[in-house]
Amino acid sequence: MNSLTFYNQKIISILLVGILSFGGSWLVAAQRGVPVPNIQDEFSYLLAGDTFAHGRLTNPTPPMWIHFETFHELMQPTYMSKYPPGQGVFLALGQILFGQPIYGVWLSTAFMCMAICWMLYGWISPRWALVGGMVGVLQFGVFTYWSQSYWGGAVAALGGALIFGALPRIFKYQRLRDVLWLGLGIAVLANSRPIEGILIGIPLGAMVLPWKIKWENVKTYKFVRKIVRPFSLLLLLTLIATGMYNRAITGNALMFPHILYSKKYSAVPYLIFEPLRKTPQYNHKTMAMDEKAWYMRRYLEKRSIKGFLKEFQDDITRIFNFNFGYPLAVPSLIILFWALFSWQRLWRLIMVVIIIAGTCAVMTAQPKTHYFSSFTCLVILLVTYGLRYLAVLLPRFRIGMIMVALLMIFQLFLNIRASQEPSPLFSLGRIVQSSEVGQTFTFTRQALKDFLLTKKGKHLVIIRYLPKYMVAREWVFNDADIDHSPIVWARDMGTAKNAELLEYFKDRQVWYVEVFWVSKHGVNYDKR
Q1: Could you tell me the CA-to-CA distances from 426 to 96, 444, 475, 525 in Å, in that order?
Q2: Who has the most CB within 10 Å: 127, 169, 222, 358?
Q3: Tell me: the pLDDT tens digits for 194-245?
Q4: Contact call for residues 48 and 91 (beta carbons, < 8 A)
Q5: Tell me, what's the pLDDT at 101?
Q6: Helix (H, G, I), strand (E, B), or coil: what is residue 75?
Q7: Between 108 and 425, where is the model more confident?
Q8: pLDDT above 60 (res 479)
Q9: Are 110 and 141 in contact (CB under 8 A)?
Q10: 249 with 57: CB under 8 angstroms?
Q11: In sequence order, what DSSP letters do the residues of 141-166 get, joined into one string?
Q12: What's the CA gap between 326 and 324, in Å, rounded?
């Protein structure tokens, strides 16, 4: 096969993986409905996407901002999401190109799968690179919350794949285009999950890259001129852009939005070995409840040896189940068995476990699987190696290849089945007073939003939480331009403070809503 034919086949394979990811995500949404934001973080990312879609890096502090104060969003010195901009950029892209942010999520997962497939071409044979790309689509690109929510994960995985795909090519070919891919990967990772990327990606890269690098080839002036110089320039541009973004939001190029948010709203430090800070003065009871019931509890648990070990065990289980799945764990176990025959390979495996433990020591909240998305491409590389060894171990009558196909089909069946399971928890609200008579039905936040959008005029919805409400299901989230939004969500702060809010939005129809929550088993925490 000549190089041109191989290149064309590689492009087709990468495009095929991306199309399958985007098309599969669209089909799942067509069957289940477009994903509805539910978790606090999702609304914060949507705020960032809406801000970017309107051509701004941040928003001015809105009048009456204390009524709109909510989780994971800064209100002062500017009004913006606390999170890095990576996920928001893709949401804005979907909003601009297709009219809905969810398309941006699907674009991010499609690009992630394409980058993983491209990365694998630098490590394994073309046929197994395509198989690995299909594993990426199957395991991450269609059925998980990475593609069926606004929570993120794919953007950081995209950055990790670009980095680990570019590095072996740089040391082998020393081409400028690979340096550009490396710079893009670092920029993406730095603006999606920077802390986890540094803590996980760099040590893993230090362990994995020696498999492909001959270090005697890099100690040359040519390497410095063609690689180090352009890479340094790209890194400098990334740092400058990040500093400009920080300054636009926080007023300080060195102050990241999530750090400023943590100082304003949490006594829990970012690292578990740091002491507690002074408890902030909260304007709303639900935000104080969230701090006490969630972050403070996790922080105190992880400070003890027993709590840390339990957290570590939970993380290992969660990461293994999410990244490998039960059928695809079979080839991974083959790799584990193979690793035990070499102390060098076993040491790399032990280092992975140590890195996960170190990450547990940093995160104060309960880690989610997207925290570790920067090394998703390496997980798929491991699974693909396992599938390849399975095929090699059973070559007669292509039994190994048949088993690989059956494993992937079975994994597809499990993913489809899991995607049809209902959400285990949802929140409900009840209109208790409005300028219309007779509207007293029970609904979810999205149902209320859809209902109000069918009515003429603009609306102000004042939210009151009933006792023991699940604070993770927050209702008070708004668009980037609050004053011109068709629906404004605000907190109930009592008659006196509500009066100024009602005066400011006197041209809107007002709705008072009490919110409670139930589980799928019908446990109702409406105490009235």
Answers
A1: 30, 8, 12, 12
A2: 169
A3: 876 666 555 555 555 555 555 555 556 566 677 778 888 888 999 999 999 9
A4: yes
A5: 96
A6: coil
A7: 108
A8: yes
A9: yes
A10: yes
A11: ISSSTTTSSSS--HHHHHHHHHHHHH
A12: 7
Residue 364 makes CB contacts below 8 A (sequence gap 6+) with: 268, 269, 270, 271, 272, 295, 298, 299, 302
The side-by-side arrangement of strands in the sheet containing 73-74 is 59-60, 78-81, 73-74
Q: Does 2 have pLDDT greater than 70?
A: no
pLDDT exceeds cutoff 80 at 519: no
Distance CA(209)–CA(213), nearest Å, equals 6
For residue 471, what is the DSSP state? T
Q: Is the dihedral of CA 355, 360, 361, 363 positive or negative?
A: positive
User: Is the CB of residue 399 less than 8 Å from the CB of residue 129?
Assistant: no
Q: What does the block give as tokens for 203?
A: 């040590």
Distance separating alpha carbons of residues 197 and 371, to the nearest angstrom: 9
Would you say 377 and 114 are in contact if contact means Cβ atoms under 8 Å apart? no
Distance CA 273, CA 360 (A): 12
Q: How far is CA 387 from CA 162, 278, 328, 377, in A?
A: 23, 52, 8, 15
Q: Give the sign of the dihedral formed by CA 51, CA 57, CA 63, CA 65.
A: positive
The amino acid at 218? V
> 521 CB contacts (<8 Å, ≥6 apart)?
none
Task: Take residue 294 and report the two structure tokens written for it.
Answer: 């969630």
Task: Quote the pLDDT of residue 268.
Answer: 81
One-letter-per-residue 3-state SS of 422-469: CCCEEEEEEEEEECCCCCCCEECHHHHHHHHHCCCCCEEEEEEECCCC
